[in-house]
Amino acid sequence: MEQKLSIEEITRLRQDTPGSSNVIHLNNAGASLMPWPVINAIQEHIKLEGDIGGYEASDLKEKEIQGFYHAAGKLLNTKPGNIAFTANATDAYTRALSSVPFKKGDIILTSNDDYISNQINFLSFAKRFGTVIRRVKNAPEGGLDLDDLEKQLKDLSPRILSIIHIPTNSGLVQPVEEIASIVKKYETLYLLDACQSAGQKELDVEKLHCDFLSVASRKFLRGPRGAGFLYISDKALDLGLEPLFIDMRGAEWVEKDTYIPRKDATRFEYWEFAHALLFGTKVSIDYCLNIGLDRIWNRVQFLADYTRKKLHEINGLRLLDEGPEVCGLITFTIPGLEAEIIKEELLKKKINVVTTYRNFAVIDFDKKGVQSAIRISAHYFNLESEIDFFIEQLELLISHKI
To answer: How far apart are CA 313 and CA 372, in angstroms?
Structure first.
């Protein structure tokens, strides 16, 4: 397949995206603009529930519901039975983490760049169960120090390794292929947070050798908020891992004091979830795969490179991204201008960006000596002319002309 999206294709994709005519959306790492097929799938099922009832609607659409698991399996190169639908990426992540039977002294090995909610989870487990947090050193150029990763896996035998593929705040892409080649040699469970990479970059769980992988629907997949999904490996299922708060969908109550967990990833699902959002997520996956992840990554990288070059030319602006490989997430500060003011002023020009703060990434921001920053993230439907207008408005803001 041709690697580049043509101008004609981008035009069609923008016509498919109603929000693109209202705003310059540079917050796709927060929540992207949904295309019409996703919007329609959600609205159609909501209407069906209103017409005939929620339970009746899901019964009527059972075959179509199963289509979600096939689509998600295709996205991640796994079987439908290894996929669980969840309420969001953090929900997926915590269901996975809660399935590990931690004991006092067990080690959670992670990175310095893991997401705020993940880091808080580790601290909560340490407080409640007496687990110990260890973090892999960063390499001088950014990203995990692979030698230190292997040393800690070998010396500490951690209960679980948790890595975020693309951190939310530094533009970094962790070397997950190299991590996979190391972690597969050890018994340590491996939880990979792919909330920012799904829909932006190809994900193949056979190559990633992870036991769990969590995904958000709303980001680069361009699905709805309030939805996500979790991959659970055959190894994790065969070990009998199950979420701490398993319910009637995840298990069968067979005797007064006995339940049996489901054999497949259904054991990580809850009885009640928004089927309309499941349909929206399914369509967003199909939409992504129809374009092609290699072509999406090519376009996102082109726009990110284009933007970074423009930002480099602005006097006083400081880019915070680091690592041997960077992605579509770009963070920067402008000394003397508060991030929130920048965001508000750009919003007046119908440009969507997002602020990020020290308490979102304490380790990373303390190392860089910053309290807040702006994050931008273009997607394949964004235009170079939109980037140019954003840069122009940023320069006017710096010169105090707006």
So the answer is: 21
